[in-house]
Amino acid sequence: MRLTELLADYPSDFQPPPDPEISSVVSDSRRAGSGSLFVAIRGEKANGLDFARNAIDRGAAAVAAESAGPEPLSVPWVRVSNARLAAAVLSSRALGDPARHLRLAGITGTNGKTTTAVLLSDVFREAWGASGFLGTTG
Question: Coil, strand or helix: which one is 30?
Fold first, then answer.
């Protein structure tokens, strides 16, 4: 998927050219490779911007960050307002929006949530062949 396709309708400001093919979205520069979009996330102990050059050296085709990129740029730099949100949304898009193919149920309340989740998981498994649940017990 091209960078412009990945960013379609996503609020961002990016400096082309070129319009590279994006094969993955990563936020760890050590996982960057040919065609990846590196999302530089500011953390509590480290700033992803400090690792942008490493990601580019590993083959990242573009970088997304909350701040403007350094000059000169060897790859497109995408400016986003929230890097964590961008990593989530753009990763999902790059993978074909897999959540669209899921049936989801949420359970709230004071008592019986785990029991209800286990029972529903069994019902869903019978109906659709696969099921899982997340909760305090696993």
Answer: helix
Tens of each residue's pLDDT in the chain, 138 residues: 888 888 888 887 766 567 898 999 999 999 999 999 999 999 889 999 999 999 999 999 999 999 988 877 789 999 999 999 999 999 999 999 988 888 888 899 889 888 898 899 999 999 988 888 887 777
Question: Do the beta carbons of residue 94 and residue 6 sit within 8 Å?
Answer: yes
Residue 121: CB partners within 8 Å, gap ≥ 6?
A: 131, 132, 133
Taking the C-alpha atoms of residue 112 and residue 124, their distance in angstroms, rounded to an integer, is: 18
**Residue 16 is encoded by which pair of tokens?**
């082309």
- Give the chain's domains with CATH numbers: 3-99 (3.40.1390.10), 103-138 (no CATH)
Q: How far is CA 52 from CA 38, 65, 66, 105, in A?
A: 7, 9, 12, 38
Predicted structure pTM score: 0.75
Beta-ladder partners of 63: 38, 77
